Description:
By secondary structure, the protein is mainly α. Helices cover 62% and strands 5% of the residues.
Amino acid sequence: MRLKSGLLRGEVCDMKELELGEARDVAATLEAMPIQEVIDQVERTSITKGAVLLRLLSKDRSLLVFDALGPRLQADLIGAFQDAEVLDYFADLDPDDRVSLLDELPASIADELLRSLDPQEKQVTELVLGYAKGSVGRWMSPQVLLLFDDMSVAEVLDFVRNHAAEAETIYALPIVNRARQVMGVVSLRKLFIADPTLKVSEIMVRPVSVLASADIEETARWFLQLDLVAMPVVDESNMLLGVLTFDDAQDIVEQADSEDSARSGGSEPLQQPYLSTPIRKLVKSRIVWLLVLAVSAILTVQVLDIFEATLVEAVVLALFIPLLTGTGGNTGNQAATTVTRALALGDVRKSDVFRVLGREIRVGLMLGALLGAVGFVIASLVYGMPVGTVIGLTLLAVCTMAASVGGVMPIIAKAIGADPAVFSNPFISTFCDATGLIIYFAIAKLVLGI
């Protein structure tokens, strides 16, 4: 659909700048647009303009668009709304989405919004807030129907029909006993085709459930592999607390992958669309890592300073420094990226550290032997066999060292509770640069006798 208004092209900054006729035209255009295009417009503009777009939508569509946005962008938009609008948006969110939004807001605003809820909504929201960040409980929806195993299929269907609006999902229904312990799960499809006189316990299947205290990222990844619509969340006594849905698990994995991608590139994740992110946030997301890497790069300078006399005696060695440091950094990054991904998917555990080390040593040796042979031949033809020998041996040693370090560091990070992505590309590149130079000059002094 063609966008006629300057607002939709990003030219109008404030509601007051819109004339009545233009506001009506923009509102009509927005109402006619597919909802995904409206969401895209809000995500691709500034916070002020995004707030104006939401105000011009009808209440139902405005709430739907706001609900589809990420919690960080929602939090930024909150400041551009009037109090009454904020309360409407906040109250319309599901409890788990409310908690994600509250985590992004200043404490004073979060407390005020929480107090604005009616007692029942406040209770379920506080239930989710009570669980630790990063746990399943923080992401579960407590809006779940209580269906007992001694009910008939007909009774369950009647109950679901009358209370469907109160539940997060009705397509996968947990079944509990009278002590509220999870006994099974039944799909709505199975309920529809079953004999109405049967007990629901006769058609339910064994449940796949998860503890509320479990790690949310690990849970989300294996949950998605099972292709389930939802699964029960329980406590240590197997009592039903809520459900984790497929769409929430997808959001968790997408968010985790975005964080890993950003940190492996030496920046912090934005957690909101790029075009709606203020410039100061873009700077803040990058400056810390740039400072850390700049300081750590001093190690490389120090190594060069230590071996300055060696370089003076064999100036040709300086020509190969970019090749060797680049090869070491790339080899380490490849290993780190592979192992970090394997950790995220559950293919590798913390206890596998020595197995990973053994494999990466062999991989590094093979890569180093291949690259070293090529380096030896080329360098020998141009600069003589002694220099070729230095280059070949250095490539062999550097590749082995870099692959070993790159493979082990993410596991060590996981073991100490740090994000494995933090120990990926930027850190390992700097480490391999400095260590690779030490190996290079040590071999050169030994082979060339300088």
